[in-house]
Design a protein that fits this description.
alpha+beta, 2 domains, 3-stranded antiparallel sheet, two-stranded parallel sheet, 4 helices, 7 strands, about 30% strand, globular
């Protein structure tokens, strides 16, 4: 798997805000970037094709949804998530930490970690 690298291309001397290029195994993302958050492997109202052509070069997916859609395959680096979504570009996933606490009725915690049930 390719190492993710961030390249700074511009910086504001006053605020230290930066613009850059995030190099990933699925392409280069110009930052700052509009990155839509999807649920259940979709951005509502848009196909993957429309999303890629018109809006985004990356998308963000909650870990809990990835786990449920992947039927337990929690590691998106294996490539199944890109195929499932028909999405050739970069994918950002969250840690799932917020859902562990906010969805306490839909999860079980044991010595192996957290298991979510489908809503």
């Amino acid at each position: 798997m390719r190492q993710i690298e961030f390249e700074v291309v511009a910086e504001c001397a006053r605020t230290h805000a930066r613009a850059g290029l995030l190099h990933t195994g699925h392409g280069v993302i110009e930052t700052p970037v509009f990155m839509p958050v999807g649920t259940q492997a979709t951005v509502k109202g848009l196909s993957s094709r429309d999303l890629a052509e018109d809006l985004a070069c990356a998308s963000c997916w909650p870990t809990r949804i990835i786990f449920i859609c992947g039927r337990g395959r929690s590691d998106p680096r294996a490539g199944w998530l890109h195929r499932f979504m028909d999405w050739p570009h970069a994918i950002l996933t969250d840690s799932g930490g917020f859902q562990v606490f906010s969805l306490s009725g839909l999860r079980k915690i044991d010595e192996d970690g957290v298991t979510f049930q489908s809503h």
